[in-house]
């Protein structure tokens, strides 16, 4: 039977292959309903960073789909970005319109603040800055796509990462009528082909073209670098990867203490001065970066199965998350503190895994809010050569009494003479079990 397909089957196989080939010239094979049918792509909202991939894409979409492109660039506090230049570049490459949205306030209040209340860290040290940004970026893409009469949203994610999941899950959730294209997943251009394409089409290519740069993603909650030597697990970080945080060996010899005032789990004061959240996050990041704080060399389990290594620079998170956790532990009871840890982990995983819009995340947020009702007070963190260490704490709601904590005092709520009775009952089951298991020692 093998190799002897009936003529009609061979015919339909050929037709299928022709269709596949046609689809592949414009992108990818469609496996989900939300993916665009090339024939129905007329106006595309492109999530535009101004980098090589999305600049090539801006032209490529116009060519291959004969579609119009509207560019959207979202400012989440990427340090040193010139948004006028990015916008100008989009228009120069033929964008019908180019929007730049300053979403720092929304990002800080709707995404970073809940992450702080949830002590959100994935794996052993990734504070989720990218994962938190993507649902907001995708929500804005939906908003601007609808407003500009676009039928399709395009992004520059590859098929191997988490970001495609976060963006597309958001779009498919919030805007079932919109379609998605992800040209990088299908166009099979490597960096060299992209540069050649860019040259051909008058797209400015900045930086050295010989060696590939790091793949960077950043916002006001952190910065990641991937690619190059980072993919070799036995290679220790090259100095040039650190563009945000001072290397600890170069950090000042004088330590600095920052005092963070929290209200209901959210930082509101820096060194005694009331400060808006965006400014506070930026100022704390500056202080941490100066002192070499927040460098993380991380192996991570991606949603799509791969393990990957990232170099993170997260100066603000490396100060604010431990400060928040400290205050929370101080005002929470042992029962609240033990319980919340597991919910924190669940929250972080949902967000990492691109399920921001999952109702369980909202349920958990309701708990996080309740658990943070009394997380008000001030934490001092000492910064010195790469280390951020909590050194002072105060809160009107601390479940703490300095009198009770001293060794010698007895009285008030605590009676030392009651302790032996407590110990006898506390250890009762453990003692009984020990005896049952070790009868010879009776
Ligand atoms: N590993 C992190 C994450 O999955 C950071 C990804 C960085 N994204 C990027 N497009 N370079 O969230």
Question: TL;DR of this structure?
Answer:
The chain is 42% helix and 18% strand. It has 442 residues and is α/β, with parallel strands linked by helices.
List keywords for this structure.
disordered N terminus; single chain; five-stranded antiparallel β-sheet; 15 helices; 442 residues; Rossmann fold; alpha/beta; binds arginine; elongated; 2 domains; Argininosuccinate synthetase, chain A, domain 2
Assign the CATH class of the largest domain. Alpha Beta
Q: What is the count of distinct domains?
A: 2
Shape: elongated
What is the CATH architecture term of the largest domain?
3-Layer(aba) Sandwich
Low-confidence stretches: 1-7
Q: Whole-number radius of gyration?
A: 27 Å
Biggest beta sheet attributes: 5 strands, parallel
Q: Order of strands across the widest beta sheet?
A: 3-2-1-4-5
Supply the helix-strand structural class: alpha/beta
**Cα distance, first to last residue?**
77 Å
List the bound ligands. arginine
Q: What proportion of the residues form beta strands (DSSP E)?
A: 15-25%
Number of contiguous helices: 15
Helix content: 40-55%
Kindly report the CATH topology of the largest domain: Rossmann fold
Give the topology string: H per helix, E per strand. HEHEHEHHEHEHHEEEEEHEEHHHEEHHH
CATH-assigned homologous superfamily of the largest domain: HUPs
Taking all residues together, what is the mean pLDDT?
A: 93
Total count of strands: 14
